[in-house]
Amino acid sequence: MGKNSMNIKKGDTVKVIAGKDKGAQGKVITVLREEQRVIVEGVNRVKRHTKAVQGGNTGGIITAEAPIHVSNVMLVEGDDVTRVGFRRDEVTKRRPDGSTYSAERSVRISRKTGKEI
Hints:
Layout: E1 13-16, E2 25-32, E3 37-40, E4 45-50, E5 60-65, E6 68-69, E7 73-77, E8 80-82, E9 84-94, E10 100-110
């Protein structure tokens, strides 16, 4: 696993396991690979005071989700959380000319059940 590899992807349902929002569940909106952070729907909400700009933008207090470190969330599978593993599956691929060849595909799996995520 490299520095920027992450087991959580956009669209995953995760549970917060540490911090002020511990126990909260939500869907991953954005993955920030470089910072090793994720933005989760309804979690780590912060208020931002915005100034009214002449272009018609009204000022006020906006509530938005802030990034949370990926180590503070766990993937939800069914009703419980699970660690993420990887498995290499043998697949048959087809070339543009119609011939086939064998290759491997990396698949995310649940460490708890062994099923594909």
